[in-house]
Design brief:
Blueprint: E1 26-32, E2 36-40, E3 44-47, E4 52-57, H1 61-66, E5 72-77, E6 81-87, E7 90-95, E8 100-103, E9 108-112, E10 116-121, H2 125-130, E11 136-141, E12 144-149, H3 153-156
Antiparallel strand pairs: 1-6, 2-5, 2-9, 3-6, 4-5, 7-12, 8-11, 9-12, 10-11
Length: about 160
């Protein structure tokens, strides 16, 4: 982790306890990093010392131009525990190899690195005009675990 931007806590003189809370109503997700997980850009909360945090850019050109939330994310690498904070309730899905789900991009909270993420244009004129989800959806393809959030902080506000 970058020592210039993160705060480190260490008990002095023996064992200690520390507590953390999310910044908005939501859930804290414990993660055993396996060996890497991808998080939405503000989801990282805290991790054990052996976890590396870095910026993750989607490699697909369409994701950057059209994906909004999905373009710049966070990557956690290591074999230690980390914790992520997610707005609203959390839906955890285990995708089988080749299994796909389409989701509003802002509701993708985090996923294992084995999951492929692709931003797709919504098909059909009626869907674009009346669908309420915008012009793009995120397609997640397994294998791997995906965590979806039911509410974004923008929707809460």
């Amino acid at each position: 982790m970058n020592p210039l931007t993160l705060t480190y806590f260490e008990p002095k003189g023996g064992p200690g306890t520390i507590g953390f809370t999310p910044t908005a109503p939501g859930k804290i997700i414990p993660l055993q990093i396996t060996p890497q997980n991808i998080l939405q850009k503000d989801a990282f909360m805290v991790a054990e010392e052996g976890v590396e945090l870095s910026v993750f850019f989607q490699r697909k050109l369409g994701t950057g131009f059209f994906g909004g939330e999905g373009f710049i994310m966070q990557k956690l690498v290591g074999n230690e525990m980390a914790f992520a904070e997610v707005d609203g309730e959390v839906v955890e899905i285990n995708l089988a190899p080749g299994e796909m789900i389409d989701v509003d991009t802002t509701h993708v909270a985090l996923f294992e690195a084995s999951v492929d993420m692709e931003i797709r244009f919504v098909k059909g004129f009626k869907n674009v005009i009346f669908g309420g989800e915008g012009l793009f959806l995120t397609r997640l393809t397994g294998p791997g675990k995906v965590w979806l959030q039911t509410m974004t902080i923008a929707n809460l506000a």
